[in-house]
Amino acid sequence: MSQNQLSIQGVSRVFTGAKGQRTQALQPIDFEVKENDFVTILGPSGCGKSTLLRIVAGLDFPTTGQVLLDGQRIEGPGADRGVVFQSYTLFPWLTVAQNIRFGLRERGMSEADQKERSEFFIAKVGLRGFENHFPKQLSGGMQQRTAIARALANDPKMLLLDEPFGALDNQTRVLMQELLLGIWESAQKTVLFVTHDIDEAIFMANRVAVFSARPGRIKTEIAVDFPHPRSYTIKTSPEFMEIKARLTEEIRAESMAAAEH
Amino acid sequence: MSQMPSAMVAAAPASRPAAVPVVAPARRRALAPLEPIGTRARVLLGLAFFVVFVLVWAIATLGGFVPPTFLASPPTMVKEGWLLFTEYGFIGDIGMTVWRVFGGFLLAAVFAVPLGIAMGTWKAVEAFFEPFVSFCRYLPASAFIPLLILWAGLGEMQKLLVIFIGSFFQIVLMVAVTVGGARRDLVEAAYTLGANSRGIVARVLIPGAAPGIAETLRLVLGWAWTYVIVAELIGSSSGIGHMITDSQALLNTGQIIFGIIVIGVIGLLSDFAFKAINRRLFAWAAL
After folding, report:
1. How many domains does the structure of chain B reveal?
2. Which residues of chain B have pLDDT under 50?
3. Are A34 and A4 in contact (CB under 8 A)?
4. DSSP secondary-structure letter at B242?
5. Is A131 exposed, middle or buried (0-12, 13-18, 19+ CB in 10 A)?
6. Rounded to 5 degrees, what angle do the CA atoms A181, A182, A183 make?
7. Minimum-distance CB partner of B193 among A102, A134, A137
8. For A38-56, what is the mean pLDDT?
9. Contacts of residue B197 in chain A, CB cutoff 8 Å?
10. Which distant-in-sequence residues (6+ apart) come within 8 Å of B101 by Cβ?
11. Would you say A158 and A69 are in contact if contact means Cβ atoms under 8 Å apart?
12. Is B280 on the interface with A (CB under 8 A)?
């Protein structure tokens, strides 16, 4: 439990533009995530927090440094790190059930096992009765629930989420937070969750890492000690408000710094 | 007055003046830009064109404004068309033309679609073929006919090759663009789900591009129809194009026009069929 599962070591990222101009997205970052921990990365938009998540996912590569997962260097994307993106990335030509089975099929799991696992996760995210719907027939919230089920069905070591509820309306977003937290509470999994929403960051996390404005680095880390299972009612508690006030100050300073650039 | 909107009734004073004008409900203007029209109006307008067209044609020919040598009248055209079927075995010509179109088109598609997919998928393959294919795309298929006659004679092979050249390069480029335009986020999602390169091509790029590829094939089939007639105009002894050349020699404009109309009708039917098949196969794309 207390083992460091993910180890980000001196990771920085510099993007080179078409005319050779260099933009530093990330300053060298050192960060550790323990097994089964739920960590949110909070920061203003454009601070590089998504870049860090993409590097962990193996979809982008660090300019310096390296990322280790269970001591193994990450060299590219893989099924051991499930990713949920902000944009809706369900395969539009596959049904809900087929989308959830995609990764299982790619890894050569038997038909019977695929069916069993997909049914389990369909039930888990509350999509019974929608198995044969195409993504375009679903609401945004249902599409993201399918995407979470698709990522979890692969039984990854880590779940990486890049503002997965960012495009949803506020009510749906709150319900999705509770759903994801409920899943995490019932079946522990290491989670790295990127967001710019302060409430979301506090409500879900055991630890909030605050990103600075670009070039991004981790400015502060705040432990969130509310016991699990958590109820939405904690959001109005004085302790929650206190953490929120502190994070609001931190983010505000960074947003203003970002606006000056 | 019972249909007066309630808001107006409420706003009106108790002792209403006698001369309140009855307000018609606001309506969409039919001729405003981009304003949709009803299905019935659409069909009627579509038919109206043909009515006007035939009417103008009839007045021009039957009224004696155009000499019959240059342009046959509608009734003559229908009569000549009937004769074509009953006396001259026109159905055989139609069969020949249809076989050439589909034969040449299928031959082109079988080779062009895989090459297009490969070009869309691997940038190195694209870099190798793209300049050549783009160059060939602008070569008019009809300009190859003399060369193809030298190479392949006057047989069926030459006709098929004309259609092949006319279709192949178009299909390759359009398929390559469709496949290359695949959504990157779907590809990334597939990688994070454990797909390898083969899985990406077979289960992300191809299914994602399939509706676009089918649409490309539908378009190019339409162009294949124009190539086949050109191929049949030169050095041919059967087919709709050959019948048209024969009729030209005999100054039989009725048969020429009938032939052209038959080509249009067959093209329209095959297009409808293609559209219906695509809608069925790729129902998800139309959602």
Report:
1. 1
2. 1-12
3. yes
4. H
5. middle
6. 90
7. A102
8. 92
9. none
10. B163, B221, B224, B225, B228
11. yes
12. no
The verdict on residue B29 lying in a domain is: no
**Touching check for B281 and chain A: CB below 8 Å?**
no
HSE of B228, CA atoms in CB hemisphere, 13 A: 30
Q: Tell me whether B284 touches chain A (CB under 8 Å).
A: yes
Q: What are the tens digits of pLDDT across the range B10-22? A: 444 555 555 667 7
Mean pLDDT (whole number) for A231-250:
93
The number of helices, as runs of H, and strands, as runs of E, in chain B is 12, 0
Residues 195-234 of B with CB under 8 A from A: 195-196, 199, 203-204, 207-208, 210
- The domain that holds B238 is classified in CATH as 1.10.3720.10
Interface ipTM: 0.93
Q: What pTM does this model have?
A: 0.85
Q: Which of A148, A147, A156 is nearest to A36 (CA)?
A: A156
* Integer Cα distance of A145 and A135 in angstroms: 11
Among A53, A111, A103, A49, residue whose Cα is nearest residue A78: A103
State whether A57 and B192 contact (CB < 8 Å).
yes
What is residue B18's predicted lDDT score, i.e. its pLDDT?
59
Lookup: tokens for A71: 């001591």
What is the model's pLDDT at position B152? 84
Phi/psi-derived region of residue A149, left when phi > 0, alpha when psi is between -120 and 50, beta in every other case = alpha
Per-residue pLDDT at B6: 47
Look at B18 and A62; give whichever has higher pLDDT.
A62
Q: Is residue B137 part of a domain?
A: yes
In the predicted model, what is the mean pLDDT of residues A182-190?
A: 91
A199-220, pLDDT tens digit by residue?
999 999 999 999 988 888 999 9
Residue B4 lies in a domain: no
Q: Which of B189, B194, B285 sits opposite A89 (nearest CB)?
A: B189
Domain residues for B206? 74-286
Distances (CA, A) of A139 to A22, A103, A130, A135, A142: 40, 23, 11, 8, 5
Spatial contact of B191 and A85, defined as CB atoms under 8 Å apart: no
| DSSP of B260-277 | HHHHHHHHHHHHHHHHHH
Would B38 be classed as within a structural domain?
no
Rounded average pLDDT over A70-97: 95
Task: Kindly provide the b/e burial profile for residues A221-248, where b requires at least 16 CB atoms within 10 angstroms of the residue's own CB.
Answer: ebebebeeebeeeeeeeeebeebbebbe
